[in-house]
Inverse folding.
């Protein structure tokens, strides 16, 4: 677990001080003289600033209340867990054997805190201008669109919260097929939860197909409650 090159590749950032990335990935349960709580505190503040500036520039006609709502839907445990899962952060964190047994690698609180800590570590080492493009790239890759309507009907995030609570795992999306010419492609995606498939859906992009199949899975899971 000492090879961080995959994580650094996902972030498109290489740590000069490897002790910093180790600290950022160390949960308090791991019983070391250090943990990631201080870096998490720093990361939270910096993420609020970067996302706040991004929204301020992206939505010049939105008022303070609207901007606050959009930021609150991005800068929270669910939002950070989503970004953490996109870079497979759970594979790299240091947790106790007890947390390992309790599926700590998929816990939203642990993933979210580690994500904030990693961002805090990058800021500490290289500053705001180095961190900003990393955050904006992760947001762009994770969200089809960022606005009030889309964020509050985000089926992938809603489903992830359901599956983490019920199964202690996150959904897996598989591309089953793609159709049509490059400029007008359509994708078919299946969804798997706890080694069981919950349906397929098509969309004009992989992300739209994932959202569509996530909604199908939510309806199935809610119907089985």
């Amino acid at each position: 677990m000492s090879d961080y090159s995959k994580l650094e590749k996902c972030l498109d950032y290489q740590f000069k001080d490897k002790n910093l990335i180790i600290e950022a990935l160390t949960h308090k349960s791991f019983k070391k003289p250090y943990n990631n709580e201080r870096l998490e505190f720093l990361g939270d503040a910096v993420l609020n600033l970067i996302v706040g500036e991004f929204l301020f520039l992206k939505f010049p006609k939105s008022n303070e209340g609207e901007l606050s709502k959009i930021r609150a839907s991005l800068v929270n445990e669910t939002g950070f867990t989503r970004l953490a899962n996109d870079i497979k952060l759970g594979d790299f964190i240091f947790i106790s054997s007890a947390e390992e047994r309790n599926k700590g690698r998929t816990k939203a609180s642990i993933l979210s805190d580690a994500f904030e800590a990693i961002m805090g570590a990058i800021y500490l080492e290289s500053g705001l201008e180095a961190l900003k493009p990393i955050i904006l790239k992760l947001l762009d890759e994770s969200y089809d669109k960022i606005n009030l309507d889309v964020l509050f009907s985000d089926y992938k995030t809603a489903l992830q919260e359901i599956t983490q609570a019920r199964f202690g795992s996150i959904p897996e999306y598989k591309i089953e097929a793609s159709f049509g010419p490059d400029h007008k492609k359509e994708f078919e995606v299946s969804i798997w939860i706890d080694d069981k498939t919950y349906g397929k859906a098509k969309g004009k992009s992989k992300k739209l197909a994932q959202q569509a199949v996530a909604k199908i899975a939510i309806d199935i899971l809610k119907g089985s409650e």
Q: What stands out?
A: The longest strand covers residues 172-179. The chain has a mean pLDDT of 88. Residues 5-144 form a domain with the Ribonuclease iii, N-terminal Endonuclease Domain; Chain A fold (CATH 1.10.1520.10). The beta strands are 172-179, 186-193, 196-203.
